[in-house]
C-alpha cells in the first residue's frame, strides 16, 4: 500500500503526487497560456506546432521525440518535408492530458491526482512514452501511481473509474476499468468495522485517506457504527456499464444478495428520474429493504425507492429513452437470482418501464419469471400496468396472466423438487412447505380478485380474458369466493 506522503518506485520520487523528469534539451520552468494557445517560457523559438481540437501547443521537437515513440516516428518519417505541425485530435484525454505529458517531456513538475491520472495514462500510451526511450518514462510513472496510490484509496478508485467514462476504449484496454472495479469491490466487501471515514458519498475535507488508514483495530466506543449500505451512494454515481462491472465483481466476492439488490434499487432510483411518481405508498418497500439489510424487524432506511412509472401517453425523447433502456436492460441482467434479493414491487415497476421502453423481449421474459417467483408479495397498485402495446384494454391484462402462470409454474416446481432434508425431517418440512405454498396461493387469489374488480370497469375487457384470469388458480387457493363474486358483479353491472 502507498502509506507515506512521499514514496519512491525504483528510486524515482513522486514527491506527494508531484511528478518530475530530468531536464531535456530546452531549459524552461513553465508553460504560458495565451487564449487557446500554449507557449514554452524560453528564449529558444519553437519549431513544432501541435494542434489538439481547438488548442495549439507551440513546442520544440527534441524534448518530445526523446520521450515519445509516436512523436519520434512521426517526425523521423517526415524529415524531408520539414514537419512543423502535427494534429493529435485522437489523443485520449484531450488537450488537458497532452499539456501534462508535454510538461513532463520538458522536465516540468506535474501534479498527479485521481482526476487526471487516467487521462494521462491513456495519453502516455497513445504517445508511446515507454522505457525503451528513457528510463522512468511516463507510462511507468503513471502505472506506478495508479497501482500504489489510486487503488489503495476508496475515493480515488471511484473518481478514476468515473473519469474513465470519457476514455473508451483506452481505459478499458489498459485495464484501468477492471482494476478500479476490482479495488472498489474488494473494499465494499471488506469488514467495515472501524472505518473512520463516515459516509463516503458526502464531500470530505482535505484529501481522501488510504484504505488502510480507514481501518482501526481498536475503534473507540463512541465511534459511529458503519451501516452496511455505506458504499451505495458512491457506486451509484458511476455510469451504468461501470456500475455493472463493480456489481459483478462484488457478486464474485460473495456479498449478501439482499445488499446487492438494495444497491441496484438505489442506482435505479437515481438514474431513472423521468419515470418517477412520488407519494405512491412505497414506505413498505423501504422498510422491507432496511429489514433485509440490517436483519431486524424495523428500520428507517428508505433507499430512495420511488419508482412507480407514470402511465402517461407522452412520448419519451429518443435519446433519453435509449439511455434509460440501456440502464433498465443492464439492471435486469445483474439482479441476483436469489428470491427476495429485491422487492416484488421494484421488479414490477422495472417491468413496467421495460415494457414502455421496449426492452429486449428475452429480458422482459426473464423479469416476468422473477416476478412470478415472489408474486404473492405484489400489491394491486403494482399490477395496474398500462398497456403500452396498443391493446384494446386500458391495463395490460395479458401481462398479469403471464405473471400468474409463472407463479403457478414456480409453485409446482418447488413442490416437485427433491427434498434436501433427511427422512426424519422430511414430513415436518413437507408440512411447512405445503402451508407456505397454500398461504402464498391464498394471497395471490385475493390479489387476483382485487385486480379483476379494478379492471372490470374497462368496457373493452372481453369476457374470455376475464374468465381465463379468474379460473387460472386452482379451487384450493380460495377459501372464500366473496372477492371473485364482487369482481363478477362489477364486471356485469359497471361496464357490461
From TrEMBL:
Q: Which Pfam families match?
A: NPH3
User: Mind telling me which InterPro entries this protein's record contains?
Assistant: BTB/POZ_dom (IPR000210), NPH3/RPT2-like (IPR043454), NPH3_dom (IPR027356), SKP1/BTB/POZ_sf (IPR011333)
Segments spanning the bilayer are none
| NPH3 domain ranges (all copies) | 229-496
What's in the keyword line of the UniProt record?
A: Ubl conjugation pathway
Gene Ontology biological-process entries: protein ubiquitination
Residue stretches making up the BTB domain: 46-114
- Is Transmembrane helix among the key words of this record? no
- Name the pathway it acts in: Protein modification; protein ubiquitination
Q: Which family does it belong to?
A: Belongs to the NPH3 family.
What protein is this chain from? Root phototropism protein 3 isoform X2
According to its UniProt entry, this protein's organism is Nicotiana tabacum
